[in-house]
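Researcher: Dear colleague, please comment on this protein.
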Amino acid sequence: MPPFVHRITKYDPADRDEHGHYNGVEESTSDHGTVESAYLQAVAAFAAASGVDRLAIREPQITGIVHFGLEPAVEGHGLNGLFPPDLSGFHDGAEISLSVGLELVRAMLRDNGVWCRPEVENRFAVHVGWDQYVYVSGDKPCEGALARTRALGLFPERLQASPYEADFDEPGVQRPADEDF
């Protein structure tokens, strides 16, 4: 994982209690507007600062019949127009453009029923977590992207690691997808 990790959030750290829990007025769902756009611009700024214009999809997931999100699931899991209806191209390791990666981030922010880790191994990663928390990792400090994120009204916080970082040291057999998959 790249060494410079930031949690980007719309939640002002001043509105956290002594345990770090947010107790302000911001909703935990996407506004589908200005704030969502700010998140996407911030991710794009970090990608540009990292020299990234292509990403790989890692560990893609879509919801089944059961949907646990705060917003209603949408037809196509937010992937309509990004991938064919059979979702070919939405698989682990698939290479996508940054613009498609940003649309995947939008779908995850909207809780459309899709989740993945858009990444460039050891250079850049973006993970979307619960309640509109976005984790961006890069191989450079990205001071300009941090300033842009703050100017957009979001709050970047430096972390040691993303809580959504893949743990490939898990026990069990790991094998690549094959025709049986």
